[in-house]
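User: Hi! Is it possible to get a structure for several chains at once, not just one? Here's what I have:
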Amino acid sequence: MTQSNTLLPPLTERSGALRWLRKNLFGTWSDSLLTVAALLLIYWAVKSLLVWIFTIAEWEVIVANLRLFLIGQFPLEQAGRLWVGLGFLLFLTGNSLAIWDTRSYIPAILVLAFPLFLAFLPFENDTRRWLIFLSVTGAIGWGLGFSNPRALKKTVVVGWIISLPILVLLTRGLTEPDAGGALAIVGTNLWGGLLLTFLLTVVANIFSFPLGLLLALGRRSELPMIRWFSIAYIELVRGVPLITILFMAQLMLPLFLPSNITVDRVLRAMVGMTLFSAAYLAENVRGGLQAIPKGQFEAAYALGLGGAQTMIFIILPQALRLIIPILVGQFISVFKDTALVAIVGLFDLLGIARTVLSQPEFLGLHREVYVFVSLLYWVLSYAMSYISQRLETSLGIGVR
Amino acid sequence: MIELNQSIITVNDVHKWYGNFHALKGINMEVAKGEVIVIFGPSGSGKSTFIRTINRLEEHQRGEILVDGIQLTHDVRNIEAVRIETGMVFQQFNLFPHLTIMQNITLAPIQVRKWTRNQAEEIAMQLLARVGIPEQAHKFPGQLSGGQQQRVAIARALAMQPKIMLFDEPTSALDPEMIKEVLDVMVELAKSGMTMIVVTHEMGFARAVANRMFFFDQGQIVESGTPEEIFKAPKEERTKLFLSQILSH
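Assistant: Yes, the chains can be modeled jointly so their relative placement is included. Here is the combined structure:
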């Protein structure tokens, strides 16, 4: 018997563009017909879209209002604070990528080079300097993380934890508005655009997480009071649309508070979003908790661990890992739901879009504005989804 | 050598119901320090339920259980005190899949016994060497074979330095070729003087190290005695029948 040691797969299994085409698109004459029809349809749709994008659409409305879309009425002379905040975030991102996402440099390069890429676009020179600043801080963060990954782990975690207060401080300011200075207070009525959308999303997600966790645990509690409160809260909130909660926060809340206490409108929206999201998170977490076998509880109890220790060290780490995809879905959904605050009169990304459209010189440019806004939402949602997938792989979910 | 007057577990007229089903019907047992007890019987006879009442994974509804002088009541402090002194090994291993072998073993000593990490890890390495798998310390449970996982489970229980070890069918979920490696560890443990209560059908193990055997059926102790008495001259018909069934193949 003369047999070669390396056996090739059968001819039909080998790859090749032509072979693939013949197998999948032109297998039979009816397949071929469908393929041609589909190609024509795609050509027709894409052509109209491209024609619209490059010849009909008037993109000046976006260019002229870019600042409004990004930061709303936030005073331009204070915008440097926002750049610094963004730089801090990029520093942490670069650092984290170097420490945890060690298998590939591509995400790091993409993230850190993106501002640099933007700097080549025809922005004002001031903006370009800030964009370069972002790339540089990101690169410094990455370099530090790369050179000393072990020592920096805890520092980075602390950095992420304090990043929210720092961002809020930078956005809001510290000193009296009239006094001027580098940290003069900028009222929340001036916050807008992507900045407001971003802050609403981050605050709602960060605060709804512990709240949802407690509600999920409360729903499984053996104490009837806690259990019934949790169930009532979850079912009540999940039973009403978010927009009604936002209306209640804006219109009803002042009725219940003494007249001399006024709660900031942005804060009210944040509270509304947080309370709403917490109810959904609670149910997601409960799903994760139910997936943990009883034997895990028993093994922990048998070792002498108490109820709280069992939850913290054994059950929650497993349950949360299981529901990362669901959690990210919830986070993204909160991000998109913030668009509803436009209806109660805040100027988030969508709210700003509506004011831009009411400017006399840009009347009737709905398509351009909404395409741009949708694109922004999509890019950021997809980024979150992508990060979660990388997180899942690096945590080894589904491997063990 | 066993001092029979030094009793470490006292079980007195213990009853347990699941709804209307009477799972344990008045169990009495006295276990001396250093004794090795084997419990066997058909499935559904209450043997697993009984061993789980000893560390309160199951609650008994009548009678009393004293472990190392501590009475098991609804008092959470008593329950945790008993659990600290009592290690348990399960049929399904129940290792924590998100923690390494080392973390599985050191978690409870660090959190419950309040040892330092170094101290806990040192003892964990000694135990892993004792159960024969020191090289697996930094793997995850999912990367180990069933027999290795069960040996880790034994090491994890021993790390708390318990006075009593409970084994609930420790070899029933294992492939045949892995049963021996687990039994070897258990035999070594029995010979070292550990007080053990073992629910198992491994009669070779019982013959080798058990001091006394208890045959459970329908929630009651049908017969008890030394392995010699049980194997050579069982008194009850049900014991004879059951032994003939499990020893025939």
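Chain B is about 40% helix and 25% strand. The beta strands of chain B are 7-18, 21-32, 36-40, 62-67, 70-71, 86-89, 164-168, 195-199, 212-217, 220-225.

User: Great, thank you!
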